[in-house]
Amino acid sequence: MVDNRLNVLLVEDTASLAALYQAYLQDEPLSLTVVNTGQAAIEHISHHAPDILLLDLILPDMQGMEILQWLHREKLNITTIVITAHGSVDVAVDAMRLGAHDFINKPIEVERLKVTLHNTMKFRQLNQMLDSYRHDIAGAPFQGFIGASLPMQKVYRLIENAAPSSATVFITGESGTGKEVCAEALHQRSARPDGPFIALNCAAIPKDLMESELFGHMKGAFTGALQDRGGAVIRANGGTLFMDEICEMDLELQSKLLRFLQTGQIQPVGSSQQIQVDVRIICATNRDPLVEVEQGRFREDLYYRLHVIPIHLPPLRERGADVLSIATALVRQAAREENKSFVGLSEATKDRLQAYHWPGNVRQLQNVIRNAVVLHEGEWIELDMLPAPLDQPINQQLAGEWVQDNLPAPIVPLATLERKAIERAISHCQGNVSRAAALLEVSPSTIYRKLQSWDNAHA
């Protein structure tokens, strides 16, 4: 018979207290193991990692915080509850920042211990369900997207909900975030997936040809119009028209687009006839459309006509581990196409890619991976295969930026330089202290202590 009980490790050096806790928990649905030193805890975890760790902070051979730091470095998925008679706000904050789930002060009341354990069990179950859901998404790309981060899960839900409707969708996001992939996903999940999907880049077409490209023209309508030609709207009839970089459209043409959206009819250039069409409109921009409206470059009435269902695509730097999922898929795809033997990324390369800011988003990542695969041989993409600026440590890039920003640089106290380096690293990592600590080659607790000391000094 399979034992489905959670494994709990109690690290407590006082035998009488350990026995008391065991008595408290003897009827609970868990399997409890007790050790009395930090070294014994590390050895037990190394061979039989528990689900939950009850950790006393004061041990005969080491501090419990050292065990928390070790768990953090090893990235072990163990839910930790800290137990101590020496509790303070600072200790609690440090413990939580190193990954502790909860914090209990001695002496422990039996109900407090049981409630904390029950809540922790529920927390683990919910996390496991979420991890399973994320794995399913990551294992099966969503309509061309790869990644299971929370921001992207929100995007997937919006696509699923918006796709069956005929309402206009307005996609925003930085260049390279996948706006056309999003538009195609909406089309494929719509009620008209067998109809045409026509993409029109409003920034790539000269102003004087844009109306013809959109609505078509008749023979002789202008110089060079040698025959009748249907525009993008006609070609998309019965399907979806994706208008990328919509904010680049000329104001005069915007009024004609608005009239088409209101009536469902178009008039080709040089024609006196109105043509009824059935087209689902999806548009996108890498600008802030409201700013364009405020600056008078985009019609307000057109904005509200188009901005029915907004979808914002997050930049790659906000998508966490999606960077590695996408990079691995790109390596394998490029290897197949280039007949190379690459299968993935080295651990050092993963760390470098994860720490980088990705101003060019997924498109930049595609170029980096393609460059490495084409120009090198091997099974794993190594650090020395990456092109600039990924070919140098991120902390060196930060240092270079610091020097450039401050030339000619005066002599300043070392503490000032240290604070500047920490603040720049945290800003570069979008507030992720653990990632900033890795770049600076210090522990996260060091950075947290520095931040706290600066806050106290300011107060």
TrEMBL record:
Residues 145-374 form the Sigma-54 factor interaction domain. The keyword ATP-binding applies. It comes from the Bacteria. One of its GO terms (biological process) is regulation of DNA-templated transcription. GO terms for molecular function: ATP binding; sequence-specific DNA binding. The modification 4-aspartylphosphate is found at residue 56. Residues 7-121 form the Response regulatory domain. Pfam families: AAA_lid_14 (PF25601), HTH_8 (PF02954), Response_reg (PF00072), Sigma54_activat (PF00158). Gene3D superfamilies: 1.10.8.60, 3.40.50.2300, Homeodomain-like, P-loop containing nucleotide triphosphate hydrolases. Keywords: ATP-binding, DNA-binding, Nucleotide-binding, Phosphoprotein, Transcription, Transcription regulation, Two-component regulatory system. This is Sigma-54-dependent Fis family transcriptional regulator. It comes from Oceanisphaera avium.
